[in-house]
UniProtKB/TrEMBL annotation:
Chain intervals with Polar residues compositional bias: 416-427
Region of interest called Disordered, as start-end residue ranges on this chain: 416-436
Gene (UniProt): LOC110975634
Name assigned to this protein: Protein NDRG3-like isoform X1
Family listed: Belongs to the NDRG family.
Amino acid sequence: MQTGEKPGMYCSTMTSPRHKVGATSSIQYKMSYHKLAGSEPEEGEVNLTHVQAEVPQDTYQRLDSDQPAVPAAMELFKVEVTDAKARNFDGFEDTNKSPLLKEDGEKTVPYELVYVPDDNGIMLVAVQGDKTKPAIITYHDIGLNHVTCFQGFFNFPDMTPILKQCCVYHVNAPGQEQGAHQLPEGKPYPDMDTLGEMLMSVVKHFGLKKFIGFGVGAGANILARFELAHPQLVEGLVLVNCTSKPATWGEWGQQKLSSFYLRGKGMTSYSQEYLLWHYFGKKTMESNHDLVTVFRENLAKSVNPYNLSLFIDSYIRRTDLKIKRELDPVKKKATRTLKGAIMLIGGSNSPHLNDTVEMNARLDPENSTWIKMSDCGGMILEEQPAKLCESFRLFLQGLGYADVLKIRATRPAQSAESSDLHVTSKSKGAPSPVFV
């Protein structure tokens, strides 16, 4: 019983699947409580969720056997009662505490919010880390911002050593940050090419010579456009759910209707459901209700619907990247393609998996890697952070940061030992590692 429960007698009923003789396993039990005597507890005082019990042994017998009867009450141990409350996205405006990376003991992580002006709008940039270290620029997807898109991933323990050796610049599209004021009506919102070009203001403002890009969805498309225009400033790109083609008629119709509702009626259930499908895909929405609930609440409370409608309009009016795979060494120099190292990622159940496959077919195989993450939908940063972190670390080391990122690999709980991961820096132009 939970602490604070009123006196009374309760009877518990428990159901569990059958197990073979002598099996030892961890089982999820569903427990319900029926009052036998005593005063009725107030609402919220009895709140047991996700009761997990480990059964040392299940013994079954035949009815005609002489073996002793199975005890009426099965002994359970290592019972854990956890609350399934979804996490919140906190720390948007607090410049003294980073919502993106937890503090390590007494060492605080430098974090500040900077508004970077541009002729086409103002961008909020969250700077995290020492500005003298290698730069990583992130860009979020539609309906998200620098915290809701990247907080879960950058708070993942395996990412902490990486971030302490880098400085991350989280860029928010104009009007998409938490608590943003509504943009003036009638003023045109930047298109995708302009949004990409606006990153030059960020580069100049912080004096960056080169950076590594990390984009999701619409943000990945924006970073790809910047790399096509300024390849000398980009060392490499990590592109999650990126597409290189214009919107299809089906996507255009759904996004246009969602934008219409956002502009006229605010965040409606139709807009929520479509954006959630855009993030996760159908399978994850049906199986991971807690994670979906977090983002559903964020869309309802933390997003300016009018500003989001403008961003969506720009995304569905995107043009083709016009990149091409050219294997002829003579023609390759004049071919329009992404020049830096590219890691293209898609989830096995992502609604954008085919977009990443098509884009991969248009990239140069010598400097690009396509990764298909198993057992996840479109929100790979939330669903498979360990796999993504490992791939990102290898990607950085493949760019030549093996000596800079002296990181001990943290393994899952079943492995008690940590091992150093040694990856030789590849020479310029050599093929990137292949991930499956």
